[in-house]
Amino acid sequence: MDVTDRPVIGIFGAGKVGTALARLLVASGYDVLMAGSPRQTALDLLVSVVAPGARVASPDDLVAGSDVIIVAVPFGKAGTVPWADFGGRIVVDAMNYWPPVDGHIADIDADERSTSEINAARNPLARVVKSLNHLGYHEMEDDAMDPGSPLRRALAVVGDDAEARAVVARIIDDIGFDAVDGGELANGRALEPGHPAFGRELSARELSGLLIPVGHLAA
User: Fold this and answer.
1) 15, 47 Cβ separation under 8 angstroms
2) How would you classify the pairing of strands 154-159 and 127-130?
3) Which are the contacts of 70, defined by CB distance < 8 A and separation ≥ 6?
4) Angle, nearest 10°, between helix axes 43-50 and 16-27?
5) Nearest Cα to Cα of residue 115 among 80, 154, 76
6) In terms of Cα–Cα distance, which of 14, 172, 30 is closest to 92?
7) The pLDDT value given to residue 39
8) What's the pLDDT score for residue 162?
9) DSSP per-residue string spanning 118-147
10) Which helix (H) or strand (E) holds 9?
C-alpha cells in the first residue's frame, strides 16, 4: 500500500489499550476492525459501548480485511495471535513484556533481542513496527493534540521496513501525536519498560535524542 492511502486498521486485543486506540482511530476517520480473546463473551456489545464505530471481526476476517494490524494483547498471549497469516502485512507491536503481569519468561529474559525482534521472528515476512507501547492507555486520548500544538507528545516508530514505518507514522500523526522515526527494529529496546523513552512525555526532539535519529515524519 502507498503511504498516502488511508488503511483499514485491525486490532487484536479488545482490552484497555485496544479500545483506547480504536476510539482514537475511529474519531480520526479510520475504519477499524477488532478481534478479542476467545474467552471474551459479548464482544459485540463491549465494542459497541466502549469503542463505538469499530467493528468486531473473527481473526481470519480481521487479517483478510486489514491493511495494518495492531497487536495489543498481553505479551504473554502473543503466541495466540495468528502470526503465520501476517506475511506481507504491516504489523504494529504495541505490547510490553511485564514480569509482574506475564511472570518471568525464562526464554525472554535470556534473549538479547528486543521483544519486537522476538515477535518479528514469528513470521519473518511480516513488516513489524514497534510503536504505541510507550504510553499508557489512559494517556492516549488525554494527550492527543492537533498538529503544531507546542506541547504535542511524540511517539516513536521503529522497524526494518522504511515504508511500513512511514505508514504507521502517518497514523500516529492522524490520531494526535508527533511521529519520530527511530530506525531499525532493534532500536525498539529504548521504548520498552525500564528503558529511556518508556512512559515519558517527550517532544519529538527529546524523543529523537533517545533513539537513532532518522528524522521527524509528522507533517
Assistant:
1) no
2) antiparallel
3) 9, 10, 11, 12, 13, 18, 21, 91, 92, 94, 132
4) 50
5) 76
6) 172
7) 67
8) 97
9) HHHTT-TTSEEEE-S-SS-HHHHHHH---T
10) strand 9-12
Grid cell listed for 33: 476492525
Q: What tens digit of pLDDT does each residue of 106-118 get?
A: 888 889 999 999 9
Residue 205's pLDDT band (cuts 50, 70, 90): very high
Q: What is the pLDDT of residues 141-157, one digit of tens each?
A: 999 999 999 999 999 99
Q: How far is CA 118 from CA 79, 83, 92, 114, 206, in A?
A: 11, 12, 13, 7, 27
- Please give the model's pTM, rounded to 2 decimal places: 0.91
- Supply the mean pLDDT for the chain: 91
Alpha helices in 28-75 (DSSP H): 43-50, 59-65
What burial letters (b/e) apply to 61-88, b meaning 16+ CB within 10 Å? Answer: ebbeebebbbbbbbbbebeebebeebee
**Residue 213: what residue type?**
P
C-alpha cell at 164: 511500513
Identity of residue 45: L
| Cα separations in angstroms, 90 against 9, 45, 64, 99, 131 | 10, 28, 13, 27, 12
